[in-house]
Model the fold of this input.
Amino acid sequence: MTRKQLIFLCLKFNDVYEDYPFNKRQSDILWTTIRHKENKKIFALIFERESQLYINVKCEPQYIEEIRELKKDVFPGFHMNKSHWNTVRVNGDVSKEELAQMIKHSYSLTSIRSGRRCLAEKL
Done:
């Protein structure tokens, strides 16, 4: 999956938009954030580091460690609250379907109409 495809996948959700709030001239990492229009909350942060594509997604704290143990390409959130966010290496051991579920879950957790569901059961 390419960066462009990943952004497109995130933009399929209702009432969201792409943003670049953290990018400065001296920054060596290009951050793409995907936010809710209703509350401006970020539910996905996409970046590349050392030629690898990553995405930060929110997760419920009670499932975060379990997911990290199940998947070697899921780490504590890079530049995020590590109790609530995971970083996923795209094109690693997390399938496209699992990644789509993680993004959907993050979208739900950050929405005003938050409908929390157990993500760990789906992996």
Remarks:
- Residues 50 and 72 are 18 Å apart (CA to CA).
- The domain at 3-122 is CATH 3.90.1150.30 (Aspartate Aminotransferase, domain 1).
